[in-house]
Design a protein that fits this description.
By secondary structure, this protein is mainly alpha-helical. The protein folds into 2 domains: 45-228, no CATH class; 230-287, no CATH class. The protein has 7 helices and 6 strands, in the order ββββββααααααα. It is extended, with a radius of gyration of 31 Å. The structure holds zinc ion.
Length: 287
């Protein structure tokens, strides 16, 4: 007789009672899901841009231009030379508008109709030989592509005989884009020494041209210039002059800003900081 006799006729067989009180093997406790923390939204550059439909002012082809959504990117700081730095995103990559058909390229701030002679010059010098980007559809723009597009903007500006300020603006943005690209490479932790050196060289070349262009534009054009008022341009030139070691030019520009009754307090504060740097540099040269 056993403890469970009778069960067999109910169809239940094979119940072993010999180890009935043995502790069952411990089951792995069911892991509780960690409490949900508010997840950081995954960064997706595509969310920051949209396709803007334009018409090429040179060949009339439709242009699908990736454009930055306003108010989406978060400004975190600003360089001494007014380059704006955004949280995880570089809007400058999206400033050039490029016609995939004829290659005409322009910074979106300067997108406007062209005169017949400008169109002719662009078509003859770029349009006829351009074969770079036909049929491309992009959802984002990489740094190398953006640099290529900025270079195309500069070529178009030269051929259409744009004002000095437009060419200077392209060079300014080109220099800043090189800096931004270099910083992103350095932040990636990858071996990028040679690339960074080249980008630094290119940045300086762009900024030297921007300086020359704005100096020329300052003598011949009115304000606002490239979206900046007179004292902002003077401030920018002062920072660039300081970088180039032209201390006398830099001090004159800064003095002009500090004496101006109409200059914004924001630029005046920045000018005071540059003045201190100039004074320190002059002192260290004398000692
Ligand atoms: Zn075109």
């Amino acid at each position: 007789m056993g403890l469970l006799d009778g069960l067999e006729k109910l169809g239940i067989k094979g119940v072993d009672t010999s180890n009935m009180f043995e502790e069952p093997e411990k089951e792995e406790p069911v892991k509780k899901a960690p409490p949900k923390v508010a997840e950081k939204p995954v960064f997706n550059e595509e969310d920051y841009v949209f396709v803007k439909k334009l018409e090429c002012p040179v060949c009339d082809s439709p242009i699908q231009s990736l454009t930055v959504k306003t108010g989406k990117a978060r400004l975190i700081k600003m360089d001494k030379d007014l380059r704006q730095i955004y949280d995880g995103f570089e809007p400058m990559k999206y400033e050039p508008v490029v016609c995939q058909c004829c290659g005409y390229s322009v910074m979106n701030r300067y997108f406007a109709p062209l005169t017949p002679s400008q169109k002719k010059a662009v078509l003859e010098n770029i349009g006829n030989s351009f074969n770079g980007k036909k049929g491309e559809t992009k959802t984002t723009i990489s740094y190398p592509e953006a640099l290529e597009n900025i270079t195309l903007c500069l070529a178009s500006a030269i051929f259409k005989r744009a004002k000095a300020s437009e060419k200077a603006y392209i060079c300014l943005k080109g220099g800043w884009l090189c800096r931004s690209y270099r910083e992103s490479l350095m932040a990636s932790g990858e071996d990028c020494e040679i690339e960074c050196e080249e980008l630094l060289k290119k940045e300086k070349e762009f900024l030297n041209n921007a300086y020359d262009g704005f100096v020329q534009a300052r003598q011949s054009e009115g304000y606002p210039m490239a979206g900046m008022d007179e004292k902002t341009i003077d401030y920018l030139l002062a920072v660039m002059a300081l970088e180039r070691g032209e201390l006398e030019v830099a001090s004159k520009l800064i003095a002009g800003i500090l004496q101006s009754p109409s200059c914004s307090p924001r630029i005046k504060d920045k000018a005071r900081e540059i003045k201190e740097e100039i004074v320190a540099k002059i002192r260290s040269q004398k000692s």
